[in-house]
Amino acid sequence: MSRRKIIFGAVVLVLVTFLTTSAGFLYLMNAWSADVVNTLKVLRALQVVKSRYVDEVPVETLVAGSIKGMVKSLNDPHSIYMDAKMYKEFMIETEGSFGGVGIVIGTKDKMLTVIAPIEGTPGEKSGIKSGDQIIKIDGQDTKDLALDEAVSKIRGPEGSQVVLTIMREQEVQDYTLTRSNIQIKTVAGKMLDNNIGYIRISMFNENTGNDFVRKLQELEKQGLKAMVLDLRDNPGGLLDESVKVASQFVPKGPVVSVVTRDGQRETHSSKLEAAKYPIAILVNGGSASASEIVAGAAQDTGVGTLIGTKTYGKGSVQTIVRLDEGSAIKLTIAKYLTPNDRSINGVGIEPDIVVQLPESRDKDVQLDKALEVLKSKM
């Protein structure tokens, strides 16, 4: 080995030793900027735990734990760290299918809450409703359970079972659900009497915008003169797909504006020359995120009448940042505003006509009201 390599190796060893001693660390804390100091603090903690903890722990486990804790410290239920398994499941769900029981969950008032059950899934068929609070999963209390951990525990192999303990209006009940492969067809529709079309969107995935356009064109060929758009229990999804949907009936102008923390603004607009026909949009407490973008745009522009109950109130935008080939962070990077610059985050959207749906649900009084409103405008 050459003398130069020996000297270089010795210098590296001294530097590493210096950085991992308290004196060296404190020196750097006084000399460098706060960002660098804090970064080194994390590295120092990693080195201490790795070298001195009573049991040997893989570095990968420590790094994943530190990232998870970092994201959790944001106190934002929509920002999460996804390991390889979670990231894979998330991408499959966005593309249109996933394994589980078919409920979309979030955190509301610090409680694990059902945003909406997905139509035709075990969750919806069992009677689980938007607004239900999940207090236990397989007997484990969810009080201190992170959202990503709850999702991971609810999902599982097709055919296996999971027990959700649900609290609804202070009444507690166990629901035993058999997991299945959830295939999501997000758009369905038909023609009702008086040439009034009905289109239901269950969530916004990669196919929703195009599927909506096809269904709308199909109804237009049948003589569509007015439309009911049902966004009840629609938990949201992809922002771009909600803009595609709204652009089919919101007249030329802003649909939604995305505003980052430094004030940068990106506005997504419709190019439609003018509204074609009257529209009534059904919403409730399970209408969230992307569905609120559509509802808010219709309400602000006056092109549609919102009927039902107040929406969920998720007015933030998330992006996926890949950390490596397996893991990623879903991070809130902006808030969105309706065309009238309303922020609905944590507030929701009040419908133009409030109609409560009775528990019996023998009759869809919200849909009936929508048909009544549309007939008066035709």
TrEMBL record:
This protein is called Carboxy-terminal processing protease CtpB
- Please tell me whether the keyword Methyltransferase is annotated for this protein: no
InterPro entries from the UniProt entry? ClpP/crotonase-like_dom_sf, CtpA/B_N, PDZ, PDZ_sf, Peptidase_S41A, Tail-specific_protease
Domain (PDZ): residue spans on this chain = 91-169
Keyword annotations for this protein, in alphabetical order, are: Hydrolase, Protease, Serine protease
What is this protein's gene name? Answer: ctpB
PROSITE patterns from the xrefs?
PDZ
Taxonomic lineage is: Bacteria, Bacillati, Bacillota, Negativicutes, Selenomonadales
Q: What is its EC number?
A: 3.4.21.102
SUPFAM superfamilies given in the database record: ClpP/crotonase, PDZ domain-like
CDD domains documented for this protein: cpPDZ_CPP-like, Peptidase_S41_CPP
GO terms for biological process, alphabetical: proteolysis
**Per the record's keyword annotation, is DNA damage included, yes or no?**
no
One GO molecular-function entry: serine-type endopeptidase activity
Q: Which family would the database say this protein is a member of? A: Belongs to the peptidase S41A family.
